Amino acid sequence: MGAVPVYRWRLAPDGLAMRRQLRALGLRPGGQDVAAQLERPRRRREPLVAYLYLIEQAKPIRPMTPAKRAALAKANAARRICPECRRDAGYVIPPSLGMCTPCAFPEEQRAA
Length: 112
Known about the structure:
Blueprint lengths: L5 E3 L7 E2 L1 H6 L2 E2 L7 E7 L2 E10 L4 E2 L5 H13 L22 H4 L2 H5 L1
Parallel strand pairs: 1-4
Antiparallel strand pairs: 2-5, 3-6, 4-5
């Protein structure tokens, strides 16, 4: 990255935006290099860093294609299927459990 300008929190000039701000505007960085860096100081820790991009060089967000939408729906459905009972849990299965709640905590353990 070399020598990019560093600005303190809330003191960046107009025309620069973070990724989330670009997304809210319907834009994406589009392959451009980081234009500047924003630092937010914290006590006894290293500062939080955010990278800024030029709004004028940003490109519009690519539209979602039907194939991409289908792949995303399939991936989200797979996250809802319990590997133990093979049923749709109706929610995204937590990675910490690795299975739906009824399989992780059967009735025998709840009654005890």
